[in-house]
Amino acid sequence: MLGYLFDNKKKKRDNLERYDDKRRQDNRGNRDGNGDGDDNRGSSGKGPNRQNLMIMLLATVIALVVISYVMNMGSEGATRISYNEFVQLVNDNKVEEVNVRSDRLEIKLKDTDAIRYTGITEENTALTQRLLEAGVTVNGYIPDSSGMVITFLLSYVLPIAFLWIIMGFIFRRAGSGGLMGSVGKSTAKEYVQKDTGVTFADVAGEDEAKESLQEVVDFLHNPGKYVKIGAKLPKGALLVGPPGTGKTLLAKAVAGEAHVPFFSLTGSDFIELYVGVGASRVRDLFKEANKNAPCIIFIDEIDAIGRSRDSKYGGGNEEREQTLNQLLSEMDGFEPAKGILVLGATNRPEILDKALLRPGRFDRRIIVDRPDLKGRIAILKVHAKDVRMDETVDLEEIALATSGAVGSDLANMINEAAINAVKNNRKYVNQQDLFEAVEQVLVGKEKKDRIMSQKERRIVSYHEVGHALISAVQKNSEPVQKITIVPRTMGALGYVMQVPEEEKYLNTKAELHDMIVGLLGGRAAEELKFETVTTGASNDIERATAIARNMVTQYGMSSKFGLMGLATVESQYLEGRAVLNCSDVTAAAVDEEVRLIMEECYNEAKAILSENMEAMDMIADYLIREETITGKEFMELYRQAKGIPEPEEGEGSAESAIEAERKEIAKIEAMPASIPEIKAEAEARAEEKAEAEETAPETAAPKTEAPKAAVPEADDEEEEAEEKPVKNGPRGRFTDVPQEDVDRFFKK
């Protein structure tokens, strides 16, 4: 027990000593005035010591090479020979002169000016006797004092001076920026207006975000009018949104408009091999910003250093926490009067530290969301201003077909359209090039080298026609723009392209239900026609299941669970993943509810297609032959199969009769409730019409008997056309009002 207590006391004493040593080292680092005294604590000095050792070894090797070179300078131009060769040359009377040095013999031959040298292996007396007998001139060595000084300087003083210079360089670096040199310096790039070439005029589709940043830029230009009323410059603004929406482009526009220094860097620029470098770079960045105030600092992908310190979001990284703590201190410590604005950009705001998001650091959160229809049109115009386009181009139609696309997608589509025009040897981009570009971005290019068997082509054809037929029959579906069975590089063997008639921000339960039915139409067509199913509906099933699950867990559209919220969305601006926050028993019940919704929608899809088998066979056969058909051709085939008359030219032949009726019903249902007036007028006119028919002369009857075969057919078509809207959906409160009376009332 006493030994245990002694060990504990010893451990505590050792810990206290280590803590005191570390604190003394930190204080020494702080007294140096460079603020880097605590930057290398996590590395325990291993990195700098290793670097110091490598530099010392390198300096030693260089010094030895210099000494060796100096020592061998006297031997340049001489050739070394063995002593036996020297004796043989003396005996052959070929040696003219020998200079005796302290450590060698320098030999000059009679027939050449070349110098030979060799070592001394015998006594000077015997050597001198041998040379004199052979008639060789012998010169003794007389030391030169001036040469000794030069030799001493080159051999000893110069290497030592070289080592002294190297050591001085090392210690100067250690005193100014640490042995890491400029590693702790900020890597931010400074821009001025002309460097970016981007202004707010080049940014479209994000009017609210642009307006918020324009206010900040105006504050920097004209601080007086804001200070006069008592306003202060926001310390920070955080740009939040999905990838590709233009957050960095907005920052470039701010740099182009601000007319003040603009420092730009990414969150990863703070991270380096050594612990503490990030904090040092933050300090250096704000030090430079204070020198150049007023200025703007832009940190792209700030989530790389601003991640929450909570363990839920991967906290606990010492280097990142040090960098974040230093950033928090700098943002909350500098004076706002200096005019330093920090811009941050991220698409993961939910993982940022709460202390970073609070007012006083990032005062504004600017949402840069996906553009709406108006925004997409504006973005397309910005990117198309330098592209030569013909009169067929309708950017509004392209914007309708690209619902959910971000600015980078739209820019890519314009560029792909221009490339398609050049590939087809055209000087201008047309509407067809733009639609092909939309398809390339969304589903990839046509995979022309993939050859499917006739059976697979038939299955894919019926699958796609099943989707399109349900879209044509349903009330809440988007009209079909194109049907194709040409494989695409992103894996699709065929697809149906649907273009919405207008931008929508809300979906009703009936619309979501019809979406699921439409997605399951391909699988239903396969089962009805071929009495089997394939793997081609995997993506449809995945999307339909996601919609059904969201209806149950997020939208409160389940009769079983009611208004319970059973899931939360994480990574809203990335994958938008939903995570269940319920028990396992409830999760199993959710799965069962989703299964029931899917089963109900699948049965409805099969019922719709069963009633339209003839139309499906006719359209599928045509699609197999042509491989690609437009929405107009599809509706013509559908009307032909169902016996529906073609719309008149004045009504717009491109729009189907079903769509026209659908719009008419929606217009009627949207009108104010003046039912009594409409009904009263309709009843009065119906009575007048009935009385007129009773009193009408019978002589007018033969006029209708001329085309005998055509009359019943026309009557059947009219009856079918009148019944069709009732089948597709009720006309609301005006079901019992004749259509002609409704039209007459609206014209009034």
Shape: elongated
Q: Calculate the terminal CA-CA distance, rounded to whole Å.
A: 106 Å
Q: What is the number of helices?
A: 28
Count of beta strands: 16
Percent strand? 5-15%
Which segments are poorly predicted (pLDDT under 50) over 5 or more consecutive residues? 1-13, 22-47, 177-181, 650-658, 667-675, 696-735
Secondary structure: helix percent: 40-55%
Structural class of the helix and strand makeup? Answer: alpha/beta
Computed over alpha carbons, the radius of gyration is 44 Å
How is the secondary structure organized here?
Blueprint: H1 2-31, H2 46-71, E1 78-80, H3 83-91, E2 95-100, E3 105-109, E4 115-118, H4 124-133, E5 137-139, H5 145-176, E6 189-191, H6 193-196, H7 207-221, H8 223-229, E7 236-240, H9 247-258, E8 262-266, H10 277-291, E9 295-300, H11 303-306, H12 318-333, E10 340-346, H13 354-357, E11 364-367, H14 373-384, H15 395-401, H16 407-423, H17 431-443, H18 454-473, E12 480-484, E13 495-498, H19 509-519, H20 521-530, H21 538-553, E14 567-570, E15 577-580, H22 584-610, H23 613-626, E16 628-630, H24 631-642, H25 657-670, H26 675-695, H27 710-728, H28 739-747
Parallel strand pairs: 1-4, 2-5, 7-10, 7-11, 8-9, 9-10
Antiparallel strand pairs: 2-3, 3-4, 6-8, 12-13, 12-16, 14-15
